[in-house]
Design a protein that fits this description.
By secondary structure, the protein is an alpha+beta fold. The protein contains one helix and six strands; from the N terminus they run αββββββ. β3 and β4 form a beta hairpin.
Length: 99
């Protein structure tokens, strides 16, 4: 194994041990939803879509939150299901909130 490969393996292992490689940056909890809910956004050419996935063992009533635009509808989300809301790309995704 080369020095470069060894350093890469150590870097990945170190990041994983710190929890840094567990999820993408945008899959963090944003808003006031429980920690078992994952939220993220995806950019299209002209739209941005916000998502919230219920990884909890119970139902969560939540909505997608946007800056400078109306929030998504308040929805009861069963475990293992997700909701989404789409806006024009210029709007900022602020996560999900309980309602």
């Amino acid at each position: 194994m080369s020095l470069r490969t060894s350093l890469a393996v150590l870097t990945v292992a170190g990041a994983a041990s710190l929890g840094l490689a567990a999820a993408p940056a945008q899959a963090a909890t944003l808003g006031n939803v429980p920690g078992c809910v994952s939220v993220w956004s995806a950019n299209g050419k002209v739209t941005k879509t916000g998502y919230a996935y219920n990884g909890c063992t119970y139902r969560v009533r939540m909505r997608i939150v946007w800056a400078w635009a109306p929030d998504g509808a308040c929805t009861t989300v069963n475990p293992g299901r997700q909701i989404w809301s789409q806006k024009a790309r210029g709007h900022r995704f602020d996560g999900a909130k309980t309602c």
